[in-house]
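Format notes (please read before filing issues)

Several people have asked whether sequences and structure tokens are stored in separate files. They are not. Every record keeps both together, in the order shown below: the sequence lines, then the token lines. Line labels are part of the format and must not be stripped during preprocessing.
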Amino acid sequence: MSCEVPLAGVGIFRRRTGSVVAMMKTSTIPSPVLLAPSGTSDSAIHPRGLEMRRVSTSGDWQEVRLIRYQALRARGEIGESDECGFGDEHDAALNSITLLLLRGGQAVASTRSSVSSTSRRWRLPATEIFRREIETSIGFDATIVEASLTAVDPACGIDPKVALFHLLKAHMLRCASENADWLITAVREPQIGFYRRMFNMEILSGAERWPGMAAPRVLMGLDYRGEAPLLFKRIPVLAVTDDDERDFAESGVITFRDRRGASTPSRNAALVAGD
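Then the structure lines:
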């Protein structure tokens, strides 16, 4: 296998002034709708047989660490290791969950989701490098979900970007269930444009060296309360419903239903849209 890419209290969110975002020009180019390129089959954009589940067994963790390791090795981010696996201390943190994306029962990708809120202030992976930027741009009075260690197996036959959309669903679900204010992630510099165009994420930092990685990272963030309703309309696979929240709470599984039906929006998504 080889790889590539990557209950808080309800309150009024107050974005802090003095953000580094103020120094950036906001793009006036409309965010694109997720459409297949000419000649691309629908199955390539919406692969069948996908589901995501919360990692819980030693076998799951072995798959996760192998996917990460080979993804990072393929990019020259880390050196070779006899263990053929990659993880860190945040894997075992109580505020983090890790998920596997599967196709036909075979692991094809993985991502980790961590959360911190005023009532449960946990250390996020990004605070090791970007604590000052998070405090300045967002503020630690906000509920923040972080996506990290996202990796996709290029041998799985799924476009890595399409797999990324499905992986991001896990973090949207976490944002909805935690009533989050922001979703953040640290990306490599070549990924900045994609995250800005497709997810309307803002640049929250300059490039900084990431411990143990060859390439520097830039912190990016999505104002979940402000942007999620529009994002769900543009990219239906990301939309979170009450059924999604209930199913994940009961089984730890995320399914990807056909969104063309009359799905019932999540109560949190409705709250966000009304704020």
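For reference, the curators noted about this record: The first strand starts at residue 50 and ends at 54. The helical segments are 42-45, 58-74, 127-137, 160-178, 192-199, 224-234, 242-251, 267-274.
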